[in-house]
Amino acid sequence: MAQPIAFGYAGPCASPFEGRLCGDNNDRGKGGLEIPVIDLSMLVSGGPDEKSRMIRDLRMACQEWGFFMLINHGVPESLMSAMEAATREFFDLPEDEKRKYAGKGVVDTVRYGTSFASGTEGGHMFFWRDFVKALVRPQFHSPSKPQGFSNVLAEYCEKMHVMGKVLLEGISESLGLDTEHINKMMDIESSQQLWAANRYPPCPDPESVMGIPAHTDYGLLTFLTQHGTDGLEIFHQDKWVEVHPIKGAILVNTCDHIEIITNGKYKSVLHRAKVNTEKTRISIVSSIGPSPDTFVRPIEELLEEGKEEAKYMGMKYREYFDLMYDPKLFGKSCLEYVKTITTRS
User: Fold this and answer.
1) Distance of alpha carbon 336 from alpha carbon 238, whole angstroms
2) Helices 149-174 and 77-91 meet at what angle, rounded to 10?
């Protein structure tokens, strides 16, 4: 049986969804561009013309943005609301209850941390957040409290996994591949899936801290809900762009291993979380990646029959994590490291 991948901190600036990091807190985003919107129902049940148009839109979103809003995704709004409510209940638990999950090992399957108390991970005030994380696939793990939390989490993450498989089918088609190409290549049925939630309380001096600094996510796809409160910024066309939530939509971004398997055709994009002075922001994140022992490399069919060189080294998914936690790479980009020497030069 495959062992769980470590998902603790690689260092003061890393999180379970952070691959490439950039610790600069300057240049707050002011852009007002709107990111693409993808209608998942058109990929699932649209007519030939509608599906073809949505595949084209998906290709554009992955090539030009690395982010898109997903609507008509099949995750009930009632379930999304229940997940948010359960998450708020967890963060409202007494501190001693939450500290039961404040582990120190990077393979802890459930983990809690805070920037606001000593004795827990995340004591660097550059961060302004509480967080909880759980490994939910291939084995399911969850906090035991509050009551009913694990049931909501299990249903929510199963919906996210199904949604992820459908999106990867669409991404395969957008690359000119068979529908199941990526799902089979990445062994998605045995995929590593993580869930995390962040709470960012109001901050009296938001210019001096970040919720999470600029980073890319490892894995294939990350799904984020912000529940009506702005706070996420993405780096697009050399500037930071604010992401404004669409009610009921799920924000999706392509991650490091999508960039690797597409040989750089689709990008893993820097993004960061900021804080505000007025209200608490809750973000809920789920990520889907290959199975731990999957050998991840650029897709051969995308290398144009030998005319294009592979830009990334192949390695098992779990080996990517070993690199992330290697002290020699502290503060450096793991994604840049796995680029071939020819590409780096």
Assistant:
1) 18
2) 130
